[in-house]
Design a protein that fits this description.
Layout: H1 11-16, E1 26-30, H2 44-61, E2 73-83, E3 92-102, E4 106-115, E5 118-130, H3 142-152, E6 155-156
Parallel strand pairs: 3-6
Antiparallel strand pairs: 1-3, 2-5, 3-4, 4-5
Length: 157
């Protein structure tokens, strides 16, 4: 099955490639030479770039932000990754994203990188919404809360 790269994949395509059903948002790509380290597998820092790529598409597709001046400002407060299996040159992978928890002005995301039906890496991030002054926290609008709960099962803390 041919995967469309860097475009959101429908749930049936995710499932056909071994992505568990609770991951409803994902995009495929392949490992490029520039992403390798001296051990010939994907450099750990590259996974954070993949997480950012899927996060930007996710917040656009979910209507959270289109990164215009009038949209809510968002900052990455924390992020991290765990590595479960190496990926090598030309390996196809699917990077997934979902929101898991919401607070007043922030939400937590989880990430997964799947290849060959197995999870190669996982990660997390905390995203904070800010007012235009970039210091004052902005409450997450109800419409966004409803979207995160309906699409991902995110829970309010």
């Amino acid at each position: 099955m041919t995967l469309a790269y860097r475009t959101p994949l429908p749930p049936e395509t995710l499932a056909a490639h071994g992505v568990p059903a609770d991951w409803r948002y994902g995009m495929a790509d392949r490992v490029r030479f520039r992403e390798l380290d001296v051990l010939d597998h994907v450099n750990n820092a590259v996974y954070l770039t993949w997480f950012e790529t899927v996060r930007v598409a996710y917040v656009r597709d979910y209507g959270i932000s289109h990164y215009r001046a009038e949209d809510p400002k968002m900052v990455l407060r924390a992020t991290g990754a765990e590595f479960h299996a190496p990926l090598h040159l030309d390996d196809e992978y699917i990077v997934t994203a979902r929101s898991t928890r919401m607070r007043r002005s922030s939400f937590q995301m989880a990430y997964g990188v799947f290849s060959g039906g197995r999870m190669a890496a996982s990660g997390h991030a905390v995203i904070v919404m800010l007012e235009d002054d970039l210091r004052t926290r902005r409450e997450i609008p109800d419409a966004i809360r409803q979207t995160l709960a309906a699409r991902d099962g995110a829970v309010q803390e």
